[in-house]
């Protein structure tokens, strides 16, 4: 059912909407427009002269092997984070959905990580994983693995994936649990009567009924991994060693604020922006279609 | 095709005992209807048999094998749920084929069996639809089809028709009966509906607070209810139950107000003065100018009959069913034919004789 409020004049509605619009304007539309503008410019190394170069920043970007490396790295990173975060969350949600003892405590504990600030979470991970004093390093050393994510590219990638996924598990868990609980119990019972058990029942009944949630979470997780993991990666590896964990987001930051190549950095953020728009449009279309059915 | 036996089946949820020992034996191919007030444990009983719940104690013997601890998958029992519980993401065909696929039947066999069942139920043109594209009655049929196509040992129905409108319910009732006869599958059918209870089953089981109180043919339950509970539960409007005492050496009941009715079917045990409950169905009470005066409070016309609800001169409530229209007077005179009396012990509620 649709709920509508009818306002008599236009002053009140404008006042109610204005703060949102202003915020959106100053913190999103304005910087976005600026980025688009700068992406068409080139500054010299000292920031003295600025000239209009058209789409040259973009063509340079897509010809730059370093940028393409970073893009591939980001895709790998995002997929790994999404798969790990969603897989873990789904597993936990399936258990939490059962009638188990201490279910409420279990659920509450699982939601906690979501409330931890990214930088603090990163510090926790740094402590756990520290090559000298971390527990994990000790454990790995005991089984003969030399652990130093500050030197080893693969290990560094693993660490940022792990830390980023961990943060997102809670969020996914809440959605998966809600999704599982909205599946009618009798449908599952009918499947049990039909002889379906375990993994088979999960794959043929539960998972398809969970598909809208899965799709929604894929988009959310990819967006999260691409954009919201900046603080986590920055705090743990700064994108290193070398460029081993430098995602597109970190590259925007490094090129713009450290290397001061504003034109290229802006072009990169415009590309990212287009990425988000595409993902969101995809999601809206999908959700719209589900509702229309 | 199978026989089913329950031995002292009990179920508690935590501290609340729901079933207090159910014993039951179903013959091969029989349709047993279970009725009882809401919350008496009918659904729980079906779910125990289905394997969706594990009994606290007792045995469920299906075809000579105790299945009480087995997973539903190992029992070969099909159930039709009240809300149908169709798989929303599957077509009608896939809904019906699901169990067969799990059993590993060949594609051809599955297609053949689904089509045969769909033809029986008139679902042929709907096989490609999703459940949300079906009407309530069609969903009900699919739910039936999903159970039938499996050719299980046992059918369980938990109020399968209660979500349908009255007309559809009548036709589906007839159809279920026809299908059950034709397939000869042993069935348990839970319902709230008096008519379903009377017409559908070979035998009727009346449950009360987690215990079976009477198991007999529907007509026998109606004609010789075993307790005052059954007497009040089966039949609409409900049987009148009046207090009385035994008199004349156990050959008659004294209903007070000078009304003494001799038993038509012989002497009852016990000393004179034993407290009784006398039951008489509203349709058996006869208008009689020489009988008791009854003040009519409420008239319920049912079309071909009319139910009159009123009070005797000492305030005792009574309902009477008369053929045709209501009498013009607000005061009528009635009498209780001796042959129509049901005699119960007032304390235990058990039938006497
Ligand atoms: N999972 C459960 N946990 C606790 N109590 C339960 C559970 N399932 C049923 N009960 C209780 O068991 C009793 C019997 O329930 P049941 O569903 O078998 O009744 P029913 O005879 O089918 O009633 P209705 O005619 O309303 O469907 C009820 O008092 C109910 O509250
Ligand atoms: Mg029930």
Structure, explained:
The complex is a heterodimer of chains A (about 290) and B (about 350). Chain A is built from 13 helices and two strands. Chain A is globular and about 75 Å long. Chain A is mainly alpha-helical. Chain A has a domain at about 65-120 and about 150-290: MetI-like fold. In chain A, about 75% of the residues lie in helices and about 0% in strands. The longest helix of chain A has about 35 residues, at about 65-95. Chain A starts with 10 loop residues before the first helix and ends with a helix. Chain B is α+β, with helices and mostly antiparallel strands. Chain B folds into two domains: about 5-225, 3-Layer(aba) Sandwich (Rossmann fold); about 235-345, Beta Barrel (OB fold (Dihydrolipoamide Acetyltransferase, E2P)), CATH 2.40.50. Chain B has helices at about 40-50, 90-100, 105-120, 135-150, 165-185, 195-200, 220-225, 230-235; strands spanning about 5-15, 15-25, 30-35, 55-60, 65, 75-80, 155-160, 185-190, 205-210, 210-215, 240-245, 250-255, 260, 275-280, 285-300, 305-310, 315-325, 330-335, 340-345. Chain B has a six-stranded mixed beta sheet, with helices on both faces. In chain B, strand 1 and strand 2 (about 15-25) form a beta hairpin. In chain B, helix 2 packs across helix 3 (about 105-120). The radius of gyration of chain B is 24 Å and the shape is elongated. Chain B starts with a strand and ends in an 8-residue tail after the last strand. The interface between A and B is medium-sized, with 19 and 23 residues.
């Amino acid at each position: 059912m649709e709920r509508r409020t009818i306002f008599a004049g236009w002053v009140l509605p404008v006042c109610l909407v204005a703060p949102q619009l202003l915020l959106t304007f100053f913190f999103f539309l304005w910087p976005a427009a600026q980025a688009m503008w700068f992406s068409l410019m080139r500054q010299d190394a000292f920031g003295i002269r600025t000239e209009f170069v058209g789409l040259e920043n973009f063509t340079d970007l897509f010809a730059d092997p370093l940028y393409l490396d970073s893009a591939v790295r980001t895709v790998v990173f995002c997929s790994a984070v999404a798969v790990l975060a969603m897989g873990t969350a789904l597993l936990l949600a399936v258990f939490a959905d059962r009638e188990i003892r201490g279910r409420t405590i279990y659920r509450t504990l699982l939601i906690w990580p979501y409330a931890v600030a990214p930088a603090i979470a990163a510090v926790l991970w740094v402590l756990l994983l520290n090559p000298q004093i971390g527990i994990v390093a000790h454990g790995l050393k005991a089984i003969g693995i030399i652990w130093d994510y500050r030197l080893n590219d693969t290990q560094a990638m693993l660490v940022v994936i792990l830390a980023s996924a961990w943060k997102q598990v809670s969020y996914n868990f809440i959605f998966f649990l809600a999704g599982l609980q909205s599946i009618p119990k009798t449908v599952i019972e009918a499947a049990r009567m039909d002889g379906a058990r375990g993994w088979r029942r999960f794959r043929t009944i539960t998972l398809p009924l969970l598909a809208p949630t899965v799709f929604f979470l894929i988009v959310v997780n990819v967006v999260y991994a691409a954009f919201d993991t900046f603080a986590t990666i920055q705090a743990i590896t700064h994108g290193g060693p070398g460029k081993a964990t430098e995602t597109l987001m970190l590259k925007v930051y490094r090129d713009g604020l450290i290397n001061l190549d504003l034109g290229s950095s802006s072009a990169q953020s415009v590309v990212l922006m287009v990425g988000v728009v595409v993902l969101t449009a995809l999601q809206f279309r999908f959700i719209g279609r589900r509702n229309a059915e | 095709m199978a026989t089913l036996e329950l031995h002292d089946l009990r179920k508690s949820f935590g501290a609340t005992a729901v079933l207090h020992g159910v014993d039951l034996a179903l013959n091969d191919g029989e349709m047993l209807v279970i009725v009882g007030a809401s919350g008496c444990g009918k659904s729980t009983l079906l779910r125990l048999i289905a394997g969706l719940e594990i009994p606290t104690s007792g045995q469920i013997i299906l075809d000579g094998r105790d299945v009480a601890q087995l997973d539903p998958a190992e029992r070969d029992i099909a159930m039709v749920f009240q809300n149908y519980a169709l798989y929303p993401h599957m077509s009608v065909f896939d809904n019906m084929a699901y169990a067969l696929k799990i059993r590993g039947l060949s594609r051809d066999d599955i297609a053949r069996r689904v089509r045969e069942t769909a033809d029986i139920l008139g679902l042929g043109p709907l096989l490609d639809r999703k459940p949300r594209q079906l009407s309530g009655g069609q969903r009900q049929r699919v739910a039936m089809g999903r159970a039938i196509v499996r050719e299980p040992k046992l059918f369980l129905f938990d109020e399968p028709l209660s979500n349908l409108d009255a007309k559809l319910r009548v036709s589906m009732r007839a159809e279920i009966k026809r299908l059950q006869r034709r397939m000869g599958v042993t069935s348990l059918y839970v319902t709230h509906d008096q008519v379903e209870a009377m017409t559908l089953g070979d035998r009727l089981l009346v449950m009360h607070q987690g215990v079976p109180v009477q198991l007999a043919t529907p007509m026998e339950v109606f004609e010789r209810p075993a307790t005052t509970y059954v007497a009040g539960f089966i039949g609409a409007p409900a049987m009148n139950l009046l207090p009385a005492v035994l008199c004349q050496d156990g050959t008659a009941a004294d209903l007070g107000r000078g009304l003494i009715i001799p038993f038509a079917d012989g002497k009852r045990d016990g000393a004179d003065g034993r407290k009784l409950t006398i039951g008489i169905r509203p349709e058996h009470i006869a208008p009689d100018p020489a009988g008791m005066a009854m003040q009519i409070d409420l008239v319920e016309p049912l079309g071909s009959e009319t139910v009159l609800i009123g009070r005797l001169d000492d305030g005792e409530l009574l309902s009477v069913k008369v053929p045709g229209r209501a009498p013009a007077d607000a005061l009528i005179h009635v009498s209780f034919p001796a042959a129509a009396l049901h005699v119960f012990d007032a304390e235990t509620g058990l039938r006497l004789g």
